[in-house]
Specification:
The chain is of the alpha/beta class and about 350 residues long. Helices cover about 45% and strands about 15% of the residues.
């Protein structure tokens, strides 16, 4: 039989053992267990940014150790700068906040646009769900049948949006293309009507939108595809990109600046202060989610294209995008002339 002193000794050890066990169990629990990730979307609750953000929010949790909940927070304003600035310097820096914001933020930073704070390259990029490489196309009656024709024949193009005005102005200035820009159309719908009436000869749309809205134009060859503004779209590997029109290294670098929004597309980032370990955890979860059959079925159901880029590759894109000051100044001049 144990003595009284032995029993007291064992009793004294119990709290120590219990505390040690609890600490050990706590150390083994995933960081995200019981936590919530705020997904900040730099737009209203509609459109592509919101749609792709909510698609990710429905599926990524299953692939993060600890399975955190996702809460979506729409934060429109200042052309996306409000949400980007919040994520950069106000949101928690521990991996419990991520965001998706205007794809042109990097371009606007390079051009010195007001409202952009911080350095877009210092975000911890998690991954891109889809590029937003628009396709320039011309009505079948236009003299321009392929992009090479644009160096000898004028093409009247509807350019109601800031991005298209900037892209076509940049190509005219840097490569000698003969775009004649017509502005004033409210959007793609009115521009398409104008093209069919013969008021203009061409316009650009995201590839997914063109396929979904006017498949008969592609089927019946009513239009000729001419150019892609950013990354190659799936199935259009043969079609030239803006940067492919460059005749020298400096021109290519400048066209890379103007094409950067299309490369970024619908991409997700974490604040700059998140630890490398946690960033890798989020990137791994993002990559794993892409292979998830439930995610793929959901994307197909809502007719969303997925053209992904991993976080490390996206980070490398920003990190390597250092441009000489003289090229940036020339790009600013082109942007100013285009009314950007």
């Amino acid at each position: 039989m144990a003595s009284k002193s032995q029993l007291l000794g064992v009793a004294a050890l119990i709290p120590v053992v219990l505390v040690g066990w609890l600490c050990s169990a706590s150390a083994q629990e995933p960081f995200y267990k019981g936590k919530t990730i705020s997904l900040i979307i730099g737009s209203n609750a509609s459109g592509g940014y919101d749609g792709y953000g909510r698609l990710l929010s429905r599926h990524m949790s299953r692939h993060i150790p600890g399975n955190p909940a996702f809460v979506v927070q729409n934060m429109p304003g200042a052309n996306g700068a409000r949400s980007a600035n919040h994520l950069y310097s106000v949101a928690p820096q521990d991996g419990t906040a991520i965001g998706i914001f205007d794809q042109a933020m990097f371009l606007r930073q390079a051009l010195g646009s007001p409202g952009v704070k911080g350095d877009v390259a210092k975000f911890n990029w998690i991954g891109r769900l889809v590029s937003n490489s628009a396709v320039l196309f011309a009505w079948h009656t236009a003299k321009v049948k392929k992009i090479d024709d644009l160096f000898t024949n004028e093409l009247i193009v509807a350019a109601s949006g800031a991005a298209s005005r900037l892209n076509w102005s940049a190509l005219n200035a840097l490569t000698g293309t003969k775009f004649r820009l017509v502005t004033g159309y409210e959007g793609p719908a009115s521009a398409k009507i104008a093209m069919m009436r013969g008021e203009v000869e061409a316009l650009s749309l995201p590839w997914s939108a063109l396929r979904a809205e006017n498949p008969e134009w592609l089927r019946d060859k009513t239009i000729n595809l001419l150019l892609q503004t950013g990354d190659k779209n799936p199935g259009l590997e043969h079609l030239p990109r803006m940067v492919d029109l460059a005749k020298n290294t400096d021109t290519r670098k400048m066209l890379e600046i103007f094409a950067s929004p299309s490369v970024v597309g619908r991409a997700f980032a974490a604040p700059p202060g998140v630890t490398r370990e946690r960033v890798e955890m989020l990137r791994t979860a993002f990559s794993t989610m892409l292979k998830d059959q439930a995610f793929q079925a959901d994307a197909k159901k809502i007719n969303f294209d997925v053209d992904p880029m991993g976080g490390a590759e996206l980070q490398s894109f920003f990190s390597s995008a250092g441009y000489p000051a003289e090229l940036i100044e020339r790009a600013k001049t082109i942007a100013k002339q285009a009314g950007y």
